[in-house]
Design brief:
653 residues; alpha+beta; Glutamine Phosphoribosylpyrophosphate, subunit 1, domain 1; Rossmann fold; 6-stranded antiparallel sheet; 26 helices; 17 strands
Length: 653
């Protein structure tokens, strides 16, 4: 796990530009740094290293083969590097290191861009191929590792973090109004659904995307961006076509294999442990695979709060005999560390649970653990988000005219959650009566404010964003549940969680590995009949059944509970006055968009009845104040031009 950055230019590169990009990401790689520039001076690659596999200096990056014919900078891990190394050795390759970096580069040397089909891992990398005069870049299938880039006349730059690109004068740091409108209306998860970002001059590769740039006759062109892998959203087998017993055994073996691959490390490996089904499954599998090895686990606690999961974490810790560490996030700590938190987060986050996650990573770092396994990716693929998943499942059964099955599953859902699946709620959600919902909210004293309501009138008049999920299939054949889970897994919910996890863990030099984000497991899950995921009002059924021999019973039958602090109490009591102060202090770019008079009117009312809006305003103001404003004041003021002599070549996009 590391930081990568690079520049291609039609004129000689200013070496200070590469150094500034690298310095801005130094927290991601405390174990070493390196810079490589091509003989012509127009290609530069830089790397900040967090050493995990092969700790020797021989594995430092940028890593080169055949003199300078092939050079790579790589962030992440290729988990199956040992198997690939054996395959490449049989094909005549020899190796001078024990690193996965060398395996990655020789895989490219052997198979070209088809090397991506071979990798099981999390990665973002760039390879300069002198023989083709081409830069080849790629991001892993789930988007665990980030890849941001900027394009301008005669130049291209990429980095692991946005702040690195903002050190370049050529990068346009104006806010992208379309993305901002989408964010304000659709929420934080929309930030990760598109190639565009909140900054006009910065784009990102989406999960499983790759690109190539070519030098030809002194000109630079972004020749291709493509998706090299995607889930088949029409592969799901029909209701009742498979039995749970055989499926759960196959699922267990795949998950066990994924965990085993992610335990490969030359530094200590631990695990997050919330006490929920997912993290408890990972801890149980680690102990199953390594029964005698010391295992450090880390838990965030909120004593006295209904959301505290300490009791469940204790059950797993005692059953699996882990070395357990606890951390206790508080609203006061959030206020104290908000500046650092948002500086590293780079974009708005989802909930205060991300701050709790930040505290867990800080604890792991202080305990000397460099690698943590975690359970992200299970809910999105296996249907863990309760009522929403069940609603889509019921709609699909009705669409398929399985009326008897629909009635049975509806009864199960209504029995398990009478309020959510009451007849009145069904009518208000799924019929023309849904237009009565705002009026009913007012009658019951529930807030009707939205974040966009706090913006200036001119901003609200802007046309709605036309950003869309271009890969979505509007096909009657497509499994509706699969489409919903795909969106959660590869464009919205999980994509955002992976962004938070990457930035916040790397702030402390921690590598996070996610066994549920294994493409073999994902392809298996998206073929399963729907009832093996969410049937009989039980979510993630195949995981519960597959782990029945390893998980403590009390954990296996638990309902989902998010890893969240007592957010409502924090926002309506401990943090409320601070949010008001922050609203006054913020002089960032969003100060021109938000309407202070409307915000004052909101606070003069009864803001306690709408903690969600308090959070969204806090989140937006904190990002604007602690990142966007700071970036303008610090990064842009010290920014340098990429090229020593600015060329007039046009980069075709």
């Amino acid at each position: 796990m590391c930081a990568i950055s690079g520049i291609l230019s039609t004129a000689p590169i200013n070496s200070e530009a590469l150094s500034l990009m690298l310095f801005s990401q130094k927290h991601r790689g405390p174990d070493g740094r390196g810079v490589w520039t091509s003989s012509c001076g127009r290609v530069g690659l830089a790397h900040q290293r967090l050493a995990i596999i092969d700790l020797s200096v021989n594995a430092n990056q940028p890593f080169k083969l055949d003199s300078d014919n092939y050079v790579v900078v790589f962030n992440g891990e290729i988990y199956n590097y040992r198997e690939l190394k054996s395959e490449l050795t049989a094909l005549g390759h020899s190796f001078k290191t024990k690193s996965d970096t060398e395996v990655l580069l020789k895989s490219y040397q052997q198979w070209g861009r088809h090397c991506l089909d071979k990798f099981n891992g999390m990665f973002a990398f760039a390879i300069w191929d002198e023989t083709k005069r081409e830069l080849f870049c790629a991001r892993d299938r789930f988007g665990e590792k980030p890849f941001y880039y900027g394009v301008w006349k005669g130049g291209f730059a990429f980095a692991s973090e946005v702040k690195a690109l903002l050190t370049l004068k050529e990068i346009d740091d104006d806010l992208d109004q379309d993305v901002l409108v989408s964010f304000l209306s659709k929420g934080e998860n929309s930030l990760d659904a598109f190639n565009r970002t909140l900054y006009k001059g910065i784009k990102q590769l989406l999960p499983a995307q790759a690109l190539t740039l070519k030098f030809s006759r002194g000109e630079l062109s972004l020749s291709q961006i493509w998706t090299y892998w995607q889930i088949d959203r029409e592969a799901r087998l029909p209701y009742g076509s498979q039995k749970m017993e055989s499926v759960s055994e196959q699922f267990f073996e795949l998950l066990k294999s994924s965990v085993a691959l992610r335990l490969r490390s030359d530094v200590p490996v631990g695990s997050s442990l919330s006490g929920g089904l997912d993290s408890s499954s990972i801890v149980s599998l680690i102990r199953y695979l390594e029964p005698e090895k010391a295992l450090n686990t880390f838990t965030g606690r909120f004593p006295g709060a209904p959301t505290d999961e300490g009791h469940y974490a204790d059950i797993v810790q005692k059953a699996k005999k882990t070395i357990h560490h606890e951390v206790f996030p508080t609203p006061q700590k959030f206020i104290t560390e908000a500046s650092d938190f948002y500086w590293h987060a780079e974009f708005p986050v989802g909930e205060l649970s991300q701050f709790a996650q930040w505290c867990v990573f800080e604890k792991a770092s202080s305990a000397g653990v460099k690698v943590l396994l975690d359970g992200q990716g299970s809910d999105e693929q296996l249907g863990g988000y309760g009522g929403n998943i069940q609603k889509v499942y019921l709609n699909q059964l009705f669409h398929e005219k399985r009326y008897a099955t629909w009635f049975y599953e509806y009864q199960c859902a209504a029995k398990a959650n009478p309020k959510r699946f009451s007849l009145l709620r069904v009518l208000l959600n799924d019929t023309f009566l849904q237009h009565l919902r705002p009026a009913l909210r007012q009658m019951t004293a529930r807030s009707t404010w939205k974040l966009v309501d706090l913006t200036i009138d001119d901003f609200q008049k802007l046309p709605s964003s036309e950003l869309s999920f271009s890969e979505m299939i509007n096909s009657e054949k497509m499994n509706k549940l699969s489409g919903f889970l795909w969106e959660l897994s590869f464009r919205t919910m999980l994509s955002s969680l992976l962004r938070y996890g990457d930035r916040l863990s790397m702030a402390f030099g921690i590598e996070v590995r996610l066994p549920f984000c294994d493409h073999r497991l994902s392809e298996f899950i998206f073929r399963l009949p729907p009832e093996l995921l969410v049937g009989e009002s039980v979510v993630k059924r195949v995981l519960r059944e597959g782990m029945k021999n390893l998980l403590p019973h009390e954990i296996r039958i638990r309902e989902k509970q998010g890893f969240i602090p007592p957010q409502e109490k924090w926002l309506t009591q401990d943090l409320l006055s601070w949010v008001k102060e922050l609203d006054v202090q913020d002089k960032g770019p969003l100060n021109e968009v938000l309407d202070r008079k409307k915000i004052v009117r909101f606070f003069k009312g009864n803001p306690q009845k709408d903690p969600n809006l308090i959070w969204r305003l806090l989140n937006l103001r904190a990002w604007s104040h602690f990142f966007a404003q700071k970036a303008q004041n610090q990064l842009k003021q010290s920014a340098v031009a990429v090229q020593r002599d600015i060329a007039s070549k046009v980069l075709a996009v």
